[in-house]
Structures are given as C-alpha cells and as structure tokens.
Amino acid sequence: MPYPRYYDAEIEAMPALEIRRLQLQRLQRQLDYVYACSPFYRRKFDAAGVKPGDVRHLEDLTAFPFTNKDELRASQATAPPLGEHCAAQPKDIIRIHSSSGTTGRPSYVGITRADRDGWIQSVARVHWSQGVRPDSVVAMGFGMSFFVGGLPLHDAIEEIGATFIPVGTGASDRLLSAIQDTRANMLLCTPSYATYLAEYARERLSLAPDSLGITRIQSGAEPGAGVPAIRQRIEADWGCTLTEGIGNADLIPVYAAECDEKSGMHFLAPDMLLLELIDPDSGEPIEFTEGAKGELVATHLQRECVPLVRFRTRDHVVVWTDGCPCGRSGVRLRCVGRTDDMLILRGVNVFPSAIKDVVMSLRPRVTGEIQIVLEQPGPRVEPPLRIRVEHNNSTSGLETLTAEVESTLREKLIFSAAVELVAPGALPRYEMKAQLIHRAYEG
User: Fold this and answer.
1) pLDDT, the chain, mean
2) Residue 1 contacts by C-beta under 8 Å, 6 or more apart in sequence?
3) What's the CATH number where 229 sits?
4) Span 371-379, mean pLDDT?
C-alpha cells in the first residue's frame, strides 16, 4: 500500500483563509500568555503602548515591537540560563538546547513537553516532504549535542517510524562505514559537509560517493543547498536527490522544506509560527507576493517555554505564493543569505552564497571553495572585495583564470573583486556551518 502524500494533510494542504483564521485564534491566546507569564514581554509591550487585546486582525501585530537576538542575550545575562523572556516554570522544562554561539556567548533555548510535541510535528512534516518514510534508513551527519538540528531531528524521524543512525559530526570515516554497513539510503548534513564528505570518500578511502546507496540528502543549517551550482555538484557526486530545509534555534528546529519539485521550501508550520516579511533596513512590512524579497520575521503561536514575538531571524529570503504540484498550500521560501552577512559594495548588495554560486559555475577549473577576506567590519566594503578561490590543480594559466573569475563576478553580481587563487585543499572545510567570511581585522 503506498504511503500518503502528506504527513499532516489537514495542516499542510489547509486553504489560506482557514490558516489565517487558525493563526489569529492562536496569536490572540499566545499574546495573552506571554503578557501574563513573561516579564520581558510585559515590559516591552507596556513601553510600546500595546496590549494583547489590540490584535483583532493578523495585520495588527505590526504595531508591536520587534525582538532581536541581542535583546535575548541581554535577557539571559540578566536571568540565566533562559532569560526573562522565559514563560514556563522550571519544573515544566524538559530539555535545554544551545545555539552555536558564533557571535560570542551562546544562547539557550528550553522546551516543555508541549513544545517538544510541536517540534516533532513540524519536523516530521519537513522530513516527510523530503521523502522520509517508515522504511527509510537515515544517517545523521549533523551534530547530536546541544545543536537543535540533532535530537529534535532524531525525535521526528523515529516518530515517522524510519530507522535512525546517530553518527553525528567529527568522524567522517565512521559515518561512511556506517552508511555502508547499515545500508542507509538517506543522509542529513549541511551542504558544505556533503561536499567535504564526497571529497573525503574519494581521496582518503577510494570510495565513489555515488556507490554508497544514498538516494536522498536533506540539507540545511546554512544557505547553499538551493544554489543551483552547489545542488548540481552534490547531486552529481552522490547520485542522489538533494533537498533543503530551514529552521531556527530560537523558533523551531526546521519549519520549512522542499518537496520533490525542488522549487522553494514549503512553510510547513503555519499552526505554530506566524511569518512576516520586512525591509531589513526600514523594518517596514513587505507583502507576501510572488517573488517578494526581504527579511523573515516570526512569532510563535503556541510556545510555552521561550516564546518570541516578532523575532527578526536575519534570514534574507525570496518567497513564492503560486501553487505547487504537490498541493501543499504554504508559502515557499528560499534563503539567499543572512542580512547580517550581506555586504554592500558601492550600493550593490552581495551575499556570500551568491559569490560561491558564481565561482562554482567555473568548475572544474576551480574546486568551488571560496573565502571572502574582510579587512574591516561590514556591511559596507570598499571594492575590490578580496576573495580567495581554490584552483583545481592548474599548473599554468593561473593569471588567465584569475581574470576570468574576476570578470565573471563583475558581470554576474556587479561588483569588483580582487581574486587570489590558492591550491586545492588550502581553504578550510566544515562539517557544520561553513564560514565563507574571514574577518582578518579580528586577528
């Protein structure tokens, strides 16, 4: 008997008007809850002169203030470990996760049993849209520790009934041998690690990645899997289908993912999150229309432990609202970069993932690996932008290749680059999130 198309048909294919009614009901309850239980939000709402009862339509939420990551860090410094925005009693908190802390102090995220159950539902919908079924064997290439892409993914995969292989990061040879021994047919990892692992298999173990039986790779945690050149390379290396998901440690581990159409990530948690699109500079709302671009803002609709209202994710996305053949009704997203990683070169906005995409188009003369070197803090950078690019064992013609990379970047992205070609393998590889920017000014 064939498996159903959806994990949760009621939500995944719910008509837009019904979704909005459901979201309004849950938003009104959630705002009442955070005002009553979160000292952080009670002060924040009072200072802005807004009350939960002011929201009679979803659009009324735009009168409420944004929440940013620095506020959450300050909140946790004042009331560790979870901060004054925590709205649950300690006895009800069953688990604490942590962000990577790439900007300094890590931030912590707690969940109650109800929060965990919501995470499982959202992530199970995501995995199902990407092809996980009860007969799947899924090898884990994300970290299994504090990372929200670890245990929550495990919980959802086991909820579906699939077989989970919990290898994690830091042991590429063990992961590859586990894939062989268990006959795993799916792999979870970042796009950077999928590329690295293919190189590792070929160069160190003399294994062809496409001989290992992986038919699907589910990727996320960084932009890249939706970039055409990166997707093509990974799918060619592994002989598989690559799909992308997106989530956020402060919101839900994964809340949107591609289906087999691979035409954007379906928003699969409209019953748990309310999404907005804003201009990252002015904060003004942008309507969800076909092809609209902006920064994603999210509000929890049913979260007990650390609920957030109008949280600025800093994810810069493009959205699509037309129908998908799969029948899922949620808006589709593609993350093109982080607004806090965006560079501005004489008025031109440039994302690191776009630079990598252009360089990847010049393979096989280059490996596709890059490193952007900043001499001073961004986002404004005086051109030319310094970029290290790995050539691919070229013994001659490096000057010509350098000029071609620079001219291609200028033609495609409209900025001037100073390209330094380096030997294959000279740039770092990453098992988790790739760091495409090297901040030389930090030492």
Assistant:
1) 92
2) none
3) 3.40.50.12780
4) 86
